[in-house]
């Protein structure tokens, strides 16, 4: 019962204390609005980062199948080189160039976010599509030349040299235009 009395006294005290309280309508001078600004800035940065990731994903989606095709062509050229019966040096010369291009494309693929500028340029998409056609020409050239014996190579020497020079010039042009480097 004693507990009930104490409880009832505490209940009476609370309304009395509230009657004596007053509310101040003045602005708290110690309130720091910069913390709200920091939260807004962080929110905006996060939203911006998400937007960048989405943009990279959208632009990369156009390149993804092309990158796969390019790397597959490079692998096919390697296999042709491995199977080459003739003109191994000539095939090796082109294979080294293809390996450099494949390394550049793999790096581009691995570092998508850092290379968003590359993926966002529509001109690069067209160039990359044309570069794939150049790789197809190299594959065809390696397939043909690797099967030519010395006698046939002698008869076709001028044509082989012209085609090789044309392929190398075209290949180097795409490497330069796409800002890929051969190490």
UniProtKB/TrEMBL annotation:
What's a Pfam family this protein contains? Answer: MLKL_N
Region of interest (Disordered), ranges = 1-29
**Residue ranges the record marks as coiled coil:** none
Q: Name one GO biological process term.
A: cell surface receptor signaling pathway
Q: Which residues form the Mixed lineage kinase domain?
A: 68-178
Report the domain of life of the source organism.
Eukaryota
Under what name is this protein listed? Mixed lineage kinase domain-containing protein
**What organism is this sequence from?**
Rhizophagus irregularis
């Amino acid at each position: 019962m004693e507990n009930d009395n104490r409880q009832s006294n505490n209940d009476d005290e609370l309304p009395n204390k509230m009657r004596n309280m007053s509310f101040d309508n003045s602005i708290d001078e110690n309130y720091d609005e910069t913390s709200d600004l920091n939260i807004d800035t962080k929110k905006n940065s996060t939203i911006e980062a998400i937007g960048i990731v989405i943009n990279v994903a959208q632009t990369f989606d156009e390149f993804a199948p092309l990158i796969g095709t390019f790397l597959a062509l490079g692998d096919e050229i390697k296999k042709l080189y491995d199977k080459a019966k003739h003109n191994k040096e000539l095939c090796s010369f082109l294979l080294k160039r293809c390996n450099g291009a494949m390394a550049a494309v793999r790096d581009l693929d691995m570092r998508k976010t850092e290379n968003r500028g590359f993926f966002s340029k529509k001109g690069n998409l067209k160039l990359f599509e044309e570069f794939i056609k150049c790789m197809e020409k190299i594959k065809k050239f390696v397939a043909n030349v690797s099967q030519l014996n010395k006698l046939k190579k002698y008869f076709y020497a001028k044509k082989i040299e012209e085609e090789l020079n044309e392929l190398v010039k075209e290949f180097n042009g795409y490497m330069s235009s796409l800002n890929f480097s051969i190490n």
